[in-house]
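quick one
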Amino acid sequence: MFYISGTGKAIPSQIVTNNDLALYLDTNDEWITSRTGIKERRILKDHTENTVTLSAGAALEAMKNANLSAKDIDCVIVATASPIQPIPSTANLVAEMLGIHGPAFDINAACSGFVYGLSVAGGFFAQNMYENILLIGADSLSTYIDKHDRSTVILFGDGAGAVTLSATENPQAGLLGIDLSGDSSLAPILEVRNNNHPEIEENAESHLTMNGREVFKVAVRSVEKSIATTLDSANIKGQDVDWLLLHQANVRIIDAICERLDIDREKALTNIEKYGNTSAASIPILLAEVAEQNRFKDGDLLVFCGFGAGMTWGTCILRWFENK
Ligand code: UT7
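structure w/ oxa(dethia)-CoA:
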């Protein structure tokens, strides 16, 4: 069994508001706020900030909150779709930066990456392989965004969130339910192609392209099904959920999910207004912020659900514990 022993986050210093975007784009604060719930996002300021530095910052905060040092970490997993280089992995670069020795690897499941990572880590704990795992969700999708594409630039922000996961004998701890799902035939509705792609011209820039309406529909349908199936398999009723931590992509998606699952809207935590969609970082940043405010109580039932490019989606259920 394992529990979340520490949480942390790191966000770029540069704030880009809706009004900043409206200065050069045919958009406005009213449209962005009412269609998405987003008011501002954080964007990498310069080359001193990137997916690795954000990951390391979030990791250090999580380790500090858990009273763990580099020598205590047995494995590093980074969920990211925006590494600064293909090889070695972001996790290797973070481990080296923090002086952590041992296995380190990345997971690319786009915005579902943190939930996929949680289930992978859960598998390692089920095999009693490690005492402490550092799991980070980090993305800098601004590096893939065409700043003149109003349908995507308004949505995405950069950031990183991290958790330390620690072994415990508590029989109530650990994953109470998991669902990892996806549909690869939907890949074209949200993608970034790079120069290795056969249909990309040499030296063309890589931009994120998205069919927003389709992604919206798939997200609502698949998230509803994934959460319902996972709750069902764990024999848990919607009313027994204390907190819903959904991927922060659009507040209207979160509203629709709560309505369909008959879960009180107040239980669905949000911070999308401040950060936009930070991809694999959105759930761990949200978790870190709410933990910082001491809003979780011992034994609270947390449901995590991510969805994103691939398409990928998935749910993990676990209880919050203050101590081992
Ligand atoms: O991690 C997963 C990542 N992606 C998502 O979760 C995206 C899911 N989809 C969405 O969040 C929404 O589909 C969007 C926010 C992207 C778009 O909202 P929508 O309500 O689906 O708008 P729409 O695409 O249907 O566009 C409605 C209108 C269009 O104009 P017409 O054709 O009705 O004249 C767009 O051209 O709004 C226009 N529009 C904008 N207007 C002002 C599109 N983007 C903007 C904009 N500002 N930024």
